[in-house]
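Now for one specimen:
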Amino acid sequence: MEAQVGAFWHKLITGVADQRFPEQAVTLEQISKTAGILFRAWGGDSGLVVKSASATTHGAKRSLLQCIAGSNLKTELTWLDGETLNLPALLDLFSQQSLNRDLYLWLIALAAAKPDPALSWIRRNQQATLEVLAKFPGLAARYQRLVEAVFLLRPQPKSLPAGESAQETAIRAALLEPGSVDRLPPADRAPQPVYLWLHPDPPTRATARESSKDPENHEGGDSKNAANDRRYQAERAQMPDAKHSFMMFFRAESIFSWAEYIKVNRHTEQDNLPDARPAEDLDRLSVAQDGKTTASRLRFDLDLPSEAADDLPLGEGILLPEWHYKKQLLQPAHCRLQTMVARNAGPMALPAHLSATARRLRSQFEALTPVKVWLKGQFDGTELDLDACVQFTADRISGLNARQAGLYQAHHNRDRELACLLLADLSLSTDAHVNDHARVIDVIRDTLLLFSEALSATGDRFALYGFSSLRRENIRFHLLKEFEHKYNDVVRGRISALKPGFYTRMGAAIRHSSQLLSKQAATQHLLLILTDGKPNDLDQYEGRYGVEDTRIAIQEARQMGLRPFCVTIDEKGSRYLPHLFGVNGYVVIRKPSELPRQLPMLYAQLTH
């Protein structure tokens, strides 16, 4: 009973203290796709992804009811960082859903503007507002409606102390006439949040990345599927002292809750925290560097295998460039790619569980096989056209004025003149399970086998390679099938021997694949990239850096006359793949188990 009364009181006092309209709310999830399209169409950085912003403390004065309810301490505002456009997860400020939606659109347009970053907060937002209104006059009417609605939510300047009143007056003037206010008057408190502007003090990105004396202190695998998209403020903290274990040193208040400390050895901002739901209520995450990590004792997932157990390297490696997006330059000879072949992979027949599907695919793809077509009525050819000869002789005997037509027939081969290179991601994330019976790497093996069976039926030239990486000096490029070699049991054995490992330095693998594919004499060059997540590696090849290097590598491939196309099973691929491959340059397979069957059919559509 006490809990029910408390819940009722909390709901009542909170509802009275904060005038919100949840029934008219618009969520970021509802407009996330529209938000990304509009942000890029309106001139925003195409490399940024849209995510929900975390609530931050605004420091403005609260009403008595809000103090009693303990509400309105934080608010969600819009800001940008190097990789993300952070928008409020939900907008329910206004009593009309259309206004809440218009506010989202306005914030997206404002974020796409490019004001001078050296300006103060109030001048920067005014300049951005003027830029948006000048560039998109159609938004002017919506902006005026939003300003009028926002004024109803803001306190009247007469009800505030002198300093805060001057601030409120300046903000209202800046909203009504952008560009008319040069500075924000000083006051003891911060002003009330301005929901039509960007964040005055955007949080720093929550990263725990620091230079370490032991570069191997990383857990293995790609961090590609972050469950929580919110961004948090971060602060560096000291590790709790756990030396004292006797009860005489125990104090109950020294027990750390989840909100205070959790031991997680992660060095990338995209990795998941176990059961991270309590973090949604936190404004700031404290990060400490623990020298006693599990990874420092167990390094089996990142250390290279011994030479005897590793695949066989071919040659001394190939030096390749890499794009540095911050410096906007191509770093020559920055990476080393090592071609490798399975050391102990013996010839193998096609697995029995794929036989039926392979037979069906072969019968379907035989229709694409180049055929010999006879052209009749030719003046020159390899054989006489008997029908034409008989008709010509009969016309002459009957006394008709027969004109000598083409009496020969010639054959013409309808060759497809197509070359395809399939590049498969073999990073450690492919060790994850897609169901109770198979892992991603198992699905990739089956996909490569069925893909090869289908293309063997067409006679198209194709090559198969896999790749993974461990920093820029060790990019592993696994040779499965070259263009010059036939698909046989040896290739099947190499495919069956594939193992997941390490990371996904995609740019270098694409560059080398492009060089191999461009050497093929064909009218069509298709570069198929099969992956399960974003470009990722240790050192700095993560986040925006890896994405931009991959994007430049794809642009280079297109300039060489190739057609890159990505097939991914990453559910979040639609967030970054349009930036990499373009709207029509990729496909997301929702059910990974269907990939072996869908990829050959997709190839048929791409080469039709």
